[in-house]
Amino acid sequence: INSIEGQRPEVRVRPPFPAQKGLFNKPTIVNNVETLASVHYILENGGQHWKSIGTDKSSGTKLVSLDSFFNKPGIYEVEMGTPLRLVINELGGGFKSPIKAMQIGGPLGGVVPISKINDLRIDFESFSSNGFLLGHAGIVCIPKDFPIIKYIEHLFDFASYESCGKCFPCRLGT
Q: Contact 163/10 with Cβ under 8 angstroms?
């Protein structure tokens, strides 16, 4: 909201919440595009049907973005609970070249070792129980010959550059 208003891109102190006083001090709803894309399906088929898709705790579908290290890169919509290996091998067509890990769910989502592919499903509980965040489900591959320490350094640089220093974790650590 601040960015659109031409201000420094920082979160605002709440209350007031955006629904009461948001963009240009008017009531504002803030949603991501994935949520808005689901609205038509839910209105057409009903909320109970939407809840029947996926898992008990992660209902519906998820958009998964596969980077250019996949044979078939792109954005795929999958049911929550879909095995990660199916997304990688069937939808993505496997990897173009050997990789050592994947960055899943954005810069702070976690670096997932290749050995975890069979343990994960595209849902929040699977990622959480394995110590990762699913986040937006974007998958960026880290090539086998790329030094992992350089990749981690890149993530730290990104986090420190993007931090406004106002939330508790950023104020203490980036």
A: no
Burial of 4 (0-12, 13-18, 19+ CB in 10 A): exposed
The answer to whether the Cα torsion of 8, 9, 11, 15 is positive or negative is positive
The predicted structure's pLDDT at residue 23:
95
d(CA 96, CA 73): 10
Q: What is the reported pLDDT for 51?
A: 94
> What residue ranges define each of the domains in the chain, with the CATH number in brackets?
55-162 (3.10.20.600)
DSSP letters for 104-163: ESSTTT-EEEGGGGGG-EESHHHHHHTT---TT-EEEEEETTS-HHHHHHHHHHHHHHH-
Q: What CA–CA distance (Å, rounded) separates 101 from 38?
A: 30
Rounded CA-CA distance 112/17 in Å is 35
pLDDT tens digits for 84-120?
999 999 999 999 999 999 999 988 788 999 999 999 9
